[in-house]
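Encode chain A's predicted structure.
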Amino acid sequence: MKCVKRIFCCICVLALMLSGCNGTGKRGTDYNLYFANAEKNNLAVEVRNLEIRNEADVAEILMKELIDGPTGAGLRAVIPEGTKVRSVTVKDGLASVNLSQKYYGAEPAVELLARYSIVNTLCDVEGIESVKIFVEGLELMNANSVPVGALSKEDIILDPRTATTEKQLSVTLYFSDEMAQALVGEHRSVAMVDNSAEKTILLELIKGPNSTTLIKTIPAETKVLSVETQQGICFVNLSADFVNRHSGGAAAEQLTVYSIVNSLTELETVDKVQFLIEGKKAEVYKHMVFDQPFERKNELLK
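Encoded structure for chain A:
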C-alpha cells in the first residue's frame, strides 16, 4: 500500500514539473528579438525565452531586452547605450514607445536599424500591428525633420535586392532645354526616398535628365541637407555647393531656381519654395533675390 502511495506521489510531482515547463523544458515564452548583424547592414533574430507574468508588460520588457543587447555571438545592439524606456503603451494594435533623449545619439544609418529592430520585435507580439516611436514625448523625426509616424513590418525594406515592393512616386521634373532658354518637363516613376516626395524630387533633379536633349540645372556636388513642407511652403535646405559650384549667368540661375520650384509645386501640398543655404536664408543667389519664397513660374515652361 505504501508503495502504491509513493508511486502516486511521484506521478503527481512529475505532472506538476511538466506542466510548469509547458512540456518543452522551458518555463517562459519564446520571443523574437531583432539585433543588427556583425556588419550592421541588416537585422538578425535572437530567440529569447522570457517568463512574463503580466501580458501588459510584454512590450516594455522586450524594449528593455533590446536595449540590453544580444547574448549570442555575431549580433550587435543598435539602440544607443544609456537609452531609457520612459513608457510603452499598446492600444488598438498600435504600440507607442517613448524613449529618452539618448536614443538620438546613434548615427543615421544605425538609428534606422534601431528603429527597425524595435518595429520588428514588437510587431512579432500578438496584438501589435504597428509601432510609433517617441523621444521624450515628441514623435520621432527622420533626417528631414518629418515625423516618422506609425511603422509596421511591411514598411521596412533593409535590403533592396530582396524587396518585392517599393513605394513608387510618379514625378514631373523640369530641366533646361538645349538652348538654356526654357524648362522642359520629364516624367518618370521612381522609388520614394525616406518617405518624402520632396526629397525624392530634389535628388532626382540633382541626378539630371534621362533625355539627351535636356540639360541638368543643379550642380552635381549639391547636397540636400533637409526638406520640409509647412502650410504650403516647402523649405529646401541645400549645401553651399548649390551656390559655389554654379556656373553663373542670370539666365542659368533662373532656370536652376525654377527647375526646383516648378518641380516641387507639381505636388498638391506645395505652393511655394523657400530656399536655405546651410540652414540660413541667403539674400541673393549670384544675382537673384533669394530670401523670399518662390512661386511657380509657368512662363518658363516650353
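Confidence is low (pLDDT under 50) at residues 13-25, 159-165.
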